Amino acid sequence: MSFYQRRILPHLVHLAMRQEALLPFRRRVIGAAAGRVLEIGIGSGLNLPLYGSATHSVIGLEPSPALLRMARERAAEAAVTVELLEASAEAIPLATASIDCVVTTWTLCTIADARGAMAELRRVLKPNGTLLFVEHGRAPEPSVARWQDRLDPLWQRVAGGCHLNREIERLISGGGFRFDSLTTARLAGPRTHTFLYQGCARPA
Fold this sequence. Notes:
By secondary structure, this protein is of the alpha/beta class. Helix content is 35%, strand content 27%. The chain has a seven-stranded mixed β-sheet with strand order 3-2-1-4-5-7-6. Helix 4 (114-124) links the parallel strand 4 (99-105) and strand 5 (125-136).
């Protein structure tokens, strides 16, 4: 891992994820979480202050040691019990059907083996569990999607493996989930980076 990836990128990720425009989306996702929650790509822990009394505990999964160090500060102040694990979503170190709710917020774009990760999320979720998500991904406009495809190789290199053009709806449904709800939105900013998918899904 390069110096940029170890020391610089985690702070850039933290700053980018602190945008005020993202907070309403975070609140909607985290406000629906309940029971024993697994948050994939917990990052610097920006969601932790938003968990309420319906959440019994949070397990935060994060492969970046630098981001985990930032998350520990917020975990110590959280209103819920938090356990932080340095691990990847492609190999979740938890028992099958042991989680009530999985949360992903702007995370599926960066997982190298996204299909493998979806299989792992389905494995650890209870049969009646929920997947709550807000993710950016492939835009519906063909002209924007073409630019996402062109920019994606460069963007991956500067943004820690983040993909601009992941088809989030297809990724989730193809991973063995059915949608309870799915909405889309667009933030202000470059159209290649700002198309969002938000919703709730359950194991099919």
